Amino acid sequence: MKQYYGIKNKYPDAILLFRVGDFYETFSDDAVKVSGILGITLTKRANGAAQSVELAGFPHHALDTYLPKLVRAGERVAVCDQLEDPKTTKNIVKRGVTELVTPGVSINDNILEHRENNFLAAVHLDGKRGGVAFLDLSTGEFMTAEGPFDYLEKLVSGFKPKEVLFEKTQRKLFEEVFGTRWYNYPLEDWIFTPESARDRLLKHFETRSLKGFGVQNLHLGIVAAGAVLQYLDLTEHRQVTHITALSRIEEEKYVWLDRFTMRNLELFQALNEGGCSFIDVVDHTLTPMGSRMLKRWVALPLKDVDAIAERQAVVESFFREPELKDELAVELKPVGDLERLVSKVAAGRLSPREMRQLGRALQHLVPIKAACEGAADSALQVLGRDLDACREMAERIHRELENDPPALLNRGGVIRSGVSAELDELRSIAYSGKDYLAELQKREGERTGISSLKIAFNNVFGYYIEVRNTHKDKVPETWIRKQTLVNAERYITEELKEYEHKILGAEEKILSLETALYNDLLAAVTEYIPAIQKNAAFLARLDCLLGFAVLAQQNNYVRPVVDDSLVVDIKAGRHPVIERQLPPGESYIPNDVFLDNEQQQIIIITGPNMAGKSALLRQTALIVLLAQIGSFVPAESARIGMVDKIFTRVGASDNISQGESTFMVEMNEAASILNNISKRSLVLFDELGRGTSTYDGISIAWSIVEYIHEHPQGAAKTLFATHYHELNEMAKSFKRCKNFNVSVREVDNKVIFLRKLVAGGSNHSFGIHVARMAGMPRSVVKRADAILKELEDTHRKGQLSKPVGELAGHREGLQLSFFQLDDPVLKQIRDSIAALDINNLTPMEALNQLNEIKKIAGL
Fold first, then answer.
1. Cα separation of 242 and 790, whole Å?
2. Is 14 in the same domain as 137?
3. Cα(218)–Cα(201) distance, integer angstroms
4. Residues 665 and 738 in one domain
C-alpha cells in the first residue's frame, strides 16, 4: 500500500489501475468510483494496523473491456504495471505507470471511434488572438493555427476534439470563448511559454528550426503545439515517432463555417433524434481513414478553384472508366485502417494479428498503384506514381508471419516455419517428441541389437533407456547406469540428457525466440512509418473521391462549374438529405436559385409553414458546400462562384443553461454573421425575429436586410425566409432585393403544397390550415379562422370580446381574452404612422417622427 500511495500521489486526478498478480486493483476513493462506473463488486481489505481499505478489481486480461468504459465516463486512467518478473525478485515487485489514458490521448481500439478522429487540442489565448493545435495520437496527424478568438472557436467546433488543454490561470477566458461543452484539462502556465514549446517541438522533430513545416511565424500556434507534446510526456506517451510533421491550417484556404452553421445544416449530427445528418448521406467511403478525411473536408471546404477542379476531375474520370472504379473499390476495401495500424507500430503495440492485417494492406497497394498509373486521368496517374508499394516490407511480413496468427504474442504460433532453424528445431522437439523418441529407440535398438530396448520417462531420472537383463551384455560402454531393477537395468546417454534438456525448456525458449523474431520484424516496419503514413493519406484521398463517384452515380448528381465569379446559379437543385428520406415513389421537387452581387443579391422568400422554405435555404448551402469539397451536386446544372463563408441563422432554440432566451440566441448568431460577412459570403436567414414581438421582429429583420444590401464591402448573397410579409415592400426601395414565394394551391379550403419557388411575394401564411393538419381540435381551428377574418375585416380596429357565431357554446377549453385594441394612445400612434409618406421620408424626418411617437406613448 505504501508503494500504491507513492504512485497515486503522482497522479492524484486519475484513477490508478494497480497491477497485482493477475488483477488490476483499485483502492479507496478510486475503488468506490470504479465499482459504480463498471458495476463490479466493492469489497474491503484490512490494511495492517490501519483501518480497512475499499477495494475493487478485475482480471488483467479484461483491461480492454473495462478501460474504455472508464474513459467514456470522462475519467483519466493511469495504468500501473509490474515492471519486473516476480520470479526474479525476492522483494516487492517494481511497478510504474506505463500509460495515462485520457479521452484525448489513446490508441486503444475499444476507446476510439473507427470512422472519427480522436483529436487532442491545446489552446493558448493571448490578448484578442490565440493559437490552437490538434493532434490525433492514433493517426499521427498534427496541425496548428492561430487567429482571433472566433476563428479558434470555429476550428474547435469543426475538429470536435475529445479533450482540450488550456492554461490553468485562463479558465474564465477559456470558458468565455469556448463555453463548457468540451472535456478540458488545465495545465501549468510554464508549459505555455514560447521557449519551452519551441524547444519541445525541435527536440521531437530533431530539427534546428520549424521553417520546414511552414509554421515558424505562428508564434501562438507553436506554443499550443508545444503544449500538446508536453502533455504526451506527462501522460507517459513517449513512443511517438509516427508524429512526423506539424502542418499549418491556413485560414485563407478554407471556407468559414461557424458552429451555428454546422449545427443548423446538420453536417455531422441531426438536430432531431432518429434524424439523418449530411455526412450520413454523402459518406460512401470504404475505409475508416477515408471516412475521417471526408469529415475534415466537410468541416474545411476549399476556396482554391484549381484544387476543387482537381478533385472533380478524378471523380469524373471514374465515370469515364467504370472498370477502374470497380477495380479500385475491390482493392481498397480490404486495406482497412492503415493510419491507426502504423501508429501502433510506433508505440510498439502492434499485435501479431494486426501485423498480418498490415501486411495484407501493403499487398493491396501493388494493384492500386498499377491501376492508378494506368488511368487516363493525370491526377490519378500522379497519385499512382507517388504511392510507395513497400514491396519488400509486405513480402517480409508474408514470409515471416503465419497466415492466421493469434492476437497475443505470448500464445505462440506467430512465426512461420523456415524463418529460424533454431525455432524449427525447438518446435520439432516440443511438438514432435514422441516421433523423435521412437526414432531414437529404433536407431539404438538396431545399433546394439537389443530388440526389447525401450525409452521411458519418470520424475526422478527424467528420460532413460531400459534394457532387460537377458541383453545386459550388449549395452555399450558409453551408456551410464542409473538404476537396477529385478529384471532390468536403466541407463542414460549423453544424447538423451541433451534431448531432455532441450524438450523441458523448449516451450519457454520457443516463446522467447518468437518474441525476439517478432520484435525484429516490428523494428523493421518502424523504418517504413513515414512511407506508410504517406500511403495512408493517398488512399484516404482516393477513397473520398471514389465515394463521391458512387454518391453521384446513385443519386444523379452533376459536376458543378466552380469559378472565381460572384454568381451562384443552381438549376433544379435538390436537398441531398431530404430527397433520400422521401417515401418510395415520391420525388423531390427541385428549385432554381440565382444569386449575384449586381442584380439579385438578396432573395426574400415568403410562403406558408411546411411549404419548403427552410429546405430551400439549406439545400442551397449544402449544394455550395458539396461543390467546394470537390463533389458533384444534386442539380441539373450549377455554377458556383467561389464562396468564402457560409452563415446560417435557422430555427429557434433556447440556451437556458447559460440564461439565454430564444431571441438572445438569435441575436448572437445574427451579430456573428453581420460582423463577418464579405462580398463572397452566402447568408441564410430563416424566420429571424420569431423570438420577440411581431413589430420588433419586423424592424430587426428589415434593418438586417438593409444592412447587408447597403454594406460597402460585405454585399453578401442572402436568402431570407420569413413570415413577415411586410418585408416584401423592401424590393421597391432596394434594387438588388427580390421577392419570391414557395407556392401553394388552395382547393376546397384545403392547402396543397407545390414546393416550387416562384417570383413575387406572398401575403398569406396558411397557419390555420397547418393547425388543422396537426390535429388541432376542430372548434379551435374554426374559432381561429373566425378571429382571423374579423381581424382582416376590421384592420385590427375592433374589439374581439364576443364569441363569433355559435362557437362559444362548443369550446373544448376556456374562452381566451384579448387585449383592448382601441386604446386611445395606440389609436393616436396608429393615426400618426398612417399619415406618413414612407416613400418620400428622409432619415432625419423619420427620426423626428419616431421621437414624436415616443412622446405620445409617454416613454
1. 74
2. no
3. 13
4. yes
DSSP notation for 577-644 = THHHHSPTTPPP--EEEEE-SSS-SEEEEE--TTSSHHHHHHHHHHHHHHHHTT--BSSSEEEEEPPS
Residue type, 533: Q
**570 found inside a domain:** yes
Residues in Cβ contact with 686 at an 8 Å cutoff, skipping those fewer than 6 apart: 613, 614, 617, 648, 649, 650, 651, 721
pLDDT confidence bin for 586, thresholds 50/70/90 = confident
What digits encode the pLDDT tens for the residues 334-390? 999 999 999 999 988 899 999 999 999 999 999 999 999 998 888 889 888 989 889
**650 three-class SS:** coil
Q: Does 571 share its domain with 469?
A: no
Asked if residues 545 and 462 have their Cβ atoms less than 8 Å apart, the reply is no
> Are 751 and 806 contained in the same domain?
no
SS percent in the chain: helix, strand, coil, step 5: 50, 20, 35
Q: Is 407 helix (H, G, I), strand (E, B) or coil?
A: coil
Q: What is the bridge-based pairing of β-strands 53-59 and 77-82?
A: unpaired
Decide if 77 contacts 109 (C-beta within 8 A).
no
Q: Within this chain, do residues 602 and 727 fall inside the same structural domain, yes or no?
A: yes
* Spatial separation of the C-alpha atoms in residues 256 and 153, rounded to whole Å: 11
Report which of 306, 296, 412, 393 is spatially closest to residue 342, judged by C-alpha positions.
393
Task: Provide the b/e sequence for 682-705 (b: ≥16 CB within 10 Å).
Answer: bbbbbbbbbbbeeeebbebbbebb
DSSP 177-217: HHTT-S-EEEE-GGGGSHHHHHHHHHHHHT-S-SGGGT-TT
Q: How many structural domains compose the chain?
A: 7
Chain-centroid distance of CA 560 in Å reads: 27
Instruction: Using the 3D structure, point to which of 453, 481, 514 is the last residue of a domain.
Output: 514
d(CA 610, CA 192): 52
Half-sphere exposure of 51 (CA within 13 A, CB side): 4
Reduced to 3 states, what is the DSSP secondary structure of residue 562?
Answer: strand
Mean pLDDT of 796-819: 41
CATH code of the domain in which 84 resides: 3.40.1170.10
Strand partners, 59: 23
Distance of CA 179 to the CA centre of its chain: 20
CB 334 within 8 A of CB 364: yes
Q: What would the pLDDT profile of 474-504 be if each residue is shown by its tens digit?
A: 889 889 998 899 899 999 998 888 887 777 7
Alpha helices by DSSP H, listed for 639-693, are 662-674
Do 593 and 719 have their domain in common?
yes
Range of the structural domain that residue 446 is part of: 421-514
pLDDT digits (tens, 9 = 90+) for 614-657: 889 999 999 999 999 999 999 999 999 999 999 988 765 544 44
Residues 755 and 837 in one domain: no
Closest by Cα among 139, 170, 795, 200 to 532: 139
Backbone dihedral region of 412: left (phi > 0), alpha (psi from -120 to 50 degrees) or beta?
left
Assign residue 160 a region: left if phi > 0, alpha if psi is -120 to 50, beta otherwise?
Answer: left
